[in-house]
Amino acid sequence: MKNSLKLSAITLALLAANAANANDHTVHVGGQGHTHKAEAKGAAQAEMADGEIRKINKNTGKITVKHGEIKSVEMPPMTMVFGVADKAMLEGLKEGDKVKFNVKQEGSNYTVTEIKKAQ
Hints:
The protein is 26% helix and 40% strand. By secondary structure, it is an alpha+beta fold. It has a domain at 48-117: CATH 2.40.50.320. A five-stranded mixed beta barrel has the order 3-4-5-7-6. The chain has a two-stranded antiparallel ribbon with strand order 1-2. Strand 3 (49-57) and strand 4 (62-67) form a beta hairpin. The longest helix is centred in the N-terminal third of the chain and has 20 residues, at 2-21.
């Protein structure tokens, strides 16, 4: 009975340790750890498209942007109307502003998920 309790305690300890590590998304390659979330955010920042605002409609949450290639959605350079994820994103922006932005594709719709003035 004593051995059975010890075995149960050890099993529970191992399960708890495994559960604690379940949320750790670090991949160790050659002794170096890389966190997927950090890499994804860095990649997203590096992949922001360049554009120039041609028109803003704050009422409808639409923005017309003349942009370069948007690699994340495999879109060539063009001028296009996008919806924005949140109308508040348009505050502080005006026609003619140079911007960097990210786009998400859902079916045939393209939505600006992040936008900031280019520096």
